[in-house]
C-alpha cells in the first residue's frame, strides 16, 4: 500500500468537528476510531483495555523496588497488611497504598509510603516517581500524567530492635 493510499484511507475514516472557543476562534478536532485502535494495539484488528488493578499492581511493585521505601500504604492499610500476613493462604496486596485513575490513553497514580529514616525524602519521591512512570509506560503504553507521593511516616531502624523485650538501660 502506498503512502497516498494510507493517507486517503485514514482521512476517509476521520470525522472532523469544529468548535467555538471562548475567544470566538474556531478550532478543528479530528477523531478516528481506527487511528485510536492503531495507537492502542498497533493494528486495526481490535482494542486493548487495561484494568485499573493492573496499573495499580505495576505501580506498587515499582514503588517497593526503590531503596529507602520501608513500606507502602498509610497506617490503616499497613495494619490490614500485617493481619493478612498472619492468615494462612492470604497474600500481601501489591496494590496496598496505591490509588490509580486510568483512562483510555493516560493514567494518574497516588503512592503512599513509609520512608526509612535518613533518606532524603525529596530524592526518594523523585526516584519513586521515575520508576513508577517508567514501569507503567513501558508495560502498558499509557502516558502517566502524574505520580503523587505521600509520606505517612518515617521508620527508625531501631524500632524493631527495642520491641524484642531487651532494655536499653540496665
UniProtKB/TrEMBL annotation:
Disordered: region residues: 1-44
Bias-annotated ranges (Low complexity): 1-23
InterPro entries: Asp23
Compositional bias (Basic and acidic residues): 32-44
Domain of life according to the entry: Bacteria
UniProt family annotation: Belongs to the asp23 family.
Record protein name field: Putative alkaline shock family protein YloU
Phylogenetic classification of the source organism: Bacteria, Bacillati, Actinomycetota, Actinomycetes, Mycobacteriales
Amino acid at each position: 500500500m502506498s503512502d497516498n493510499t494510507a493517507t486517503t484511507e485514514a482521512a476517509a475514516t476521520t470525522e472532523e468537528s469544529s468548535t467555538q472557543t471562548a475567544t470566538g476562534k474556531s478550532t478543528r478536532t479530528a477523531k478516528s476510531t481506527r487511528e485510536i485502535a492503531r495507537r492502542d494495539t498497533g493494528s486495526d484488528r481490535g482494542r486493548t483495555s487495561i484494568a485499573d488493578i493492573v496499573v495499580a499492581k505495576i505501580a506498587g511493585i515499582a514503588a517497593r523496588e526503590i531503596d529507602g521505601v520501608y513500606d507502602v500504604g498509610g497506617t490503616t492499610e499497613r495494619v490490614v497488611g500485617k493481619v493478612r500476613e498472619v492468615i494462612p493462604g492470604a497474600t500481601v496486596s501489591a496494590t496496598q497504598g496505591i490509588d490509580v485513575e486510568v483512562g483510555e490513553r493516560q493514567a494518574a497514580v497516588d503512592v503512599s509510603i513509609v520512608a526509612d529514616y535518613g533518606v532524603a525524602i525529596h530524592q526518594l519521591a523523585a526516584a519513586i516517581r521515575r520508576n513508577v512512570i517508567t514501569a507503567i509506560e513501558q508495560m502498558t503504553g499509557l502516558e502517566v500524567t502524574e505520580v503523587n507521593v505521600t509520606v505517612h511516616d518515617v521508620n527508625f531502624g531501631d524500632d524493631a530492635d527495642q520491641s524484642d523485650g531487651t532494655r536499653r538501660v540496665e
